[in-house]
Fold each of these.
Amino acid sequence: MQVRVRAPTKVTLFGEHSVVYGYPAIVFSLPIYIDVSATEHDDILIVTGPANVSSVDLVIKEDRIDVGPKTKKYLMRYISYILKAIERFSVPGIMIEIKSPLPVGAGLGTSAAVAVGTVAAISILKGLNVDKMEIAKLAWEVEKLVQGRASPMDTAASALGGVLWIEKKEEWNIEPLSVDEINLVIGVFEKQKTTASLVAEVAEKLKRNRLYSEVIKLMGEIAREARRALEDRDWKRLGELMKLNHAMLEALGVVTEETSRAVHYAIEAGALGAKVSGAGGGGAVVALAEDPIPVASAMKVSGAKKVFTVSEPSNGVEIL
Ligand code: PMV
């Protein structure tokens, strides 16, 4: 028996980094998917993927992991954490294949989508009745193990889909927002650092100087105002708030020269707003555009390896 699922990636519209400290964020689940298949297998678990894409190539036997030459170290760690999170599913006996149109770690929640897709595929194959919310929670456990500190934002966006409001009150509150079509242009740039190291760098800065805590707090306020702008369909205000969010990321020191230039070029090309999305260190840039064509060209000129235009969010993880 084989189960195939697809798990969407995401773009953070507001509140990356500050969401790790419980402040609100707005995330858009992208209709760009990681495909995961799980197949019943004899007595071992094999995880494979094309070298240039997900670069996974390892065989897990009960007491040892054989790592193939294609497997990147951080991905191996990722997969072993997935196994840990889903231990209770008695994993041995499954072959998993992962296919991604983007490099994992591109800054669009690709690693969260790998976790969501793998957890979903294995649980369905094992006949377990696990709903999307539980898939999100299990995959979040993986994110926490890998990153050391992680918000439930990326895994919720991948599992549940839509446009989500994420905020920690007593508990984490995850609320779907109803958003009309919105023109987003997304550029993917070379990622120079991992999300885990960027999250740790920001934590270090917060410890060192209380002014960084003010920046994080302000990002929460920007997200709150952005929610009102989204609900009022006030795109001009929303664009301005994206620029403000980007300025805060610059202040946190997570923006590279290339992505900073991409934001400026996108705005010069007519975008209402633009910002880095996700942890930074390169990665993704998102722009809000009335006319996406010149903005997409500006992203390419500034060095984007891939450019996407999207207007509607995905519906979350799905069986194929
Ligand atoms: O760069 P990405 O897509 O991995 O997003 C990370 C988002 C952070 O807010 C920086 C971390 C988190 O856990 O929310």
Amino acid sequence: MTDLIDPFGRQVSYLRVSVTDRCNYRCVYCMAENMTFLPKSDLLSLEELDRVCSAFVERGVDKIRLTGGEPLVRRGIMGFIENLGRHLKSGALKELTLTTNGSQLSKYANNLADCGVKRINVSVDSLDPVKFHEATRWGHLDDVLEGLEAAKRAGLDVKINAVALKDFNDDEFDRLIAWCGDDGYDLTLIETMPMGDIGSDRLDQYLPLAEVRAQIEKHWTLDSTDYQTGGPAAYSVVRETGKRIGFITPLSHNFCESCNRVRLTCTGNLFMCLGQDDCADLRGPLRMSESNAALHDAIDRAIGQKPKGHDFVIDRRNAGPAVSRHMSVTGG
Ligand code: SAM
Ligand code: SF4
């Protein structure tokens, strides 16, 4: 089967799958506390998600990231991951990974490693238990730290994601860098993205990473590296710890030229760009027949519409979302 090449010559080799929009946390920048989730009947079954993922693997996708919502709270998720592991064994898939809030890792880290998962991203915005609880509304830092220990014992590589939030964790970056250095984690700092109504003003949260970087460089030496993932993170190496630090600035356009990814929602919508509302329905073609012909046609049409770049901007007049869906729909 042919590879997926978009109109700008970029090969799509990376599929991110939001397996659920639900979550056991309510992070302040991600969701309103009283979020309304999709009716369960709208979700693709795990068998259907497997069919779509496998169709992408047939078309040359060699990296899949599971995300959400919280991927590890979807019922039956470990069986799904185990099944996808067959593409790792065959060599068609080079990497199967996930982004998680870490709360379920003490339960699942060993299983994940057994399925062929080698590394995971875990979100930790603060190392202060009170602040952590404030940021996640329903989360407890201890659960995540236990999960990280379990991940270490299982031999999983960990990258920590932290969203930079004005007047909240801007005094913690030194601590986060030192902690990641001590525990052997790479770190990625993320600028807040204007996605979905969160019931508060985003301008209050927005902290430009250029400022953060300048602040960090007062205490740490950031050496340049040619490490790239095709995504929105620009990486450096912290000389004092030897670990990587990435800065995700989604409001800049500097990564669109190398964009190699598309995003599937748990209802079967395929988003060709994180910063655009356009998407293609794969659920209809998937359910049309047991053969995958209609599905592959729909994937081809979708990739043919992948836009050149995104239009993110935090609207300074009304501070409303530039993209109406929440991050938990496409998983970041
Ligand atoms: N629940 C998992 C987690 O928190 O890692 C996976 C899904 S979460 C949507 C993926 C990443 O997106 C997390 O690192 C989270 O901090 C980040 N995120 C969520 N909403 C965001 C927003 N509006 N702007 C920037 N990053 C956001
Ligand atoms: Fe849940 Fe992740 Fe969103 Fe936090 S960022 S509410 S953990 S999906």
